[in-house]
TrEMBL record:
Pathway: Pyrimidine metabolism; UMP biosynthesis via de novo pathway; (S)-dihydroorotate from bicarbonate: step 2/3. Heterododecamer (2C3:3R2) of six catalytic PyrB chains organized as two trimers (C3), and six regulatory PyrI chains organized as three dimers (R2). Keywords: Pyrimidine biosynthesis, Transferase. It comes from Nocardioides marmoribigeumensis. This is Aspartate carbamoyltransferase.
């Protein structure tokens, strides 16, 4: 695997390799020394054309815990704000000797363009492109489900996952659908009809407009943020009406099965798609998703850049 551009590019074996590698690296969070020498001498560039907190910091932490050198390259304040093209930026990164470029871009397909252009020889990781995909978010979500709901024999195969909210503008939803289907989970998209994309019937998942009918049957419920910044029309009457129909509150949480977990990719709009008491409840694994995100992104960088697998991860004795 040279690049990670789409969750759909991963076979089941490749996806499970990322998850098992992440499981090995997850133990670093509990060690006194949270670093491995696995990528010492390698350079990872975080190239972010869109604002980000969780994803950029998560990739930075992941690279540093593997002892890689990290260059953070933000569009604001750089030559990009003066009109420099993606090509010239890529050539600059190539001249710096980048081994991996983690890119977030507002245009769908920008990471594919960078990876397939011949401008760089480094590995390219898609950290979110427009409304298209966010594959490492899908991997960390699957890893979180696997830790809570999975088995050693079948992983999360057969588990029922509800993805609720603004599917139309959500790259997280698209990547999750692709990856969860690969891993054998059953996915239901719950959304107002105005927030379901055209052609969703070809995605191979169920859709519903009735959240209350879906919740009692799910093993994991993932709430999505309503992305008002990507909207230029009225997709629902009011925020109060949206919350009443599609928000997760204590009443709805009480209808979940005992083992069902509540997820959210963040950032949350508390009180709209999810209430504070649900977000902070024992069912919520939202904070754990952030911790798992570092382990999963470590696994991705490790597998792309080291040419090794989970069995070759150095032990604490080698630090």
């Amino acid at each position: 695997m040279k690049h990670l551009l789409s969750a759909g590019d991963l076979s089941r074996d490749e996806a499970e390799l990322v998850l098992t590698t992440a499981a090995e690296l997850r133990s670093l969070a509990d060690r006194p020394i949270k670093k491995l020498p696995a990528l010492r001498g390698r350079t990872v560039v975080n190239l972010f054309f869109e604002d980000s907190t969780r994803t950029r910091i998560s990739f930075e932490a992941a690279a540093k815990r593997l002892s890689a050198d990290v260059i953070n390259f933000a569009a604001k304040g750089s030559s990009l704000s003066k009109g420099e093209s993606l090509k010239d930026t890529a050539l600059t990164l190539e001249a710096m000797g980048a081994d991996a470029v983690v890119i977030r871009h507002g245009a769908s397909g920008a990471p594919h363009r960078l990876a397939n252009s011949g401008w760089v020889r480094s590995s390219v990781v898609n950290a979110g492109d427009g409304t298209h995909e966010h594959p490492t978010q899908a991997l960390l979500d699957a890893f979180t489900m696997w830790r809570h709901l999975g088995s050693s024999e079948s992983g999360i195969e057969g588990r029922r996952v509800a993805i609720v909210g603004d599917v139309l503008h959500s790259r997280v939803a698209r990547s999750n659908v692709l990856l969860l289907k690969t891993l054998g989970a059953e996915v239901t998209l719950v959304s107002p009809p105005t927030l379901l994309p055209v052609g969703v019937d070809t995605w191979g998942v169920e859709t519903s407009y009735d959240l209350d009918a879906v919740l009692p049957k799910t093993d994991a419920v993932m709430m999505l943020r309503v992305q008002a910044e990507r909207m230029n029309a009225a997709f629902f009457p009011t925020t109060r009406e949206y919350s009443r129909r599609y928000g997760l509150d204590a009443r709805r949480m009480a209808t979940l099965q005992d083992h069902t977990i509540v997820m959210h990719p963040g950032p949350m709009v508390r009180g709209m798609e999810i209430t504070a008491d649900v977000a902070d409840s024992q069912r919520s694994v939202i904070v754990e998703q952030v911790t798992n995100g570092v382990a999963v992104r470590m696994a991705v960088l490790y597998l792309l850049l080291s040419g090794a697998d989970a069995s070759d991860i150095p032990s604490e004795d080698n630090l």
